[in-house]
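Worked example

This section walks through a single chain of length 100. The input is the sequence exactly as stored; nothing has been trimmed or padded.
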Amino acid sequence: MDIVEISKVLANRTRVNILNWLKNPEDHFPPHQDIDHFDDGVCVGYIQDKTGLSQSTVSTYLNSMQNAKLVIPTRHGKWTYYRRNEEVIQQFLKLLKKNL
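Given that input, the structure is written out below as C-alpha cells.
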C-alpha cells in the first residue's frame, strides 16, 4: 500500500465526496431500477448525476480510485457499479496513524 498514491487520490474533494457517499449509499442515491440492493455499490450514472460532472470526468475519478484500490467495480450487464473497499480504507487509516 502506498500512502502517497492514495493521498493523491484523496486530494480531490469530489473523490472524497464519492467515497463518503458510497459509505452509506442508501442515504445518498435513489434505489436502482434493475437491482434492489446496494451490495455491489452504486451505478456510475447515479454517481455522475450526484457530482454534476461529465461522464468522462467521473470515469477518470473512479478509475484513479480503482487503481488505488479504494473502490471495487462490479459489472451488471452493460453497467458498472462501484462500492468502497473497506479493507483497503481501514489498512490505509492504520498505516497513516502509525506513520504520522
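What to look for: Residues 39 and 82 are 10 Å apart (CA to CA).
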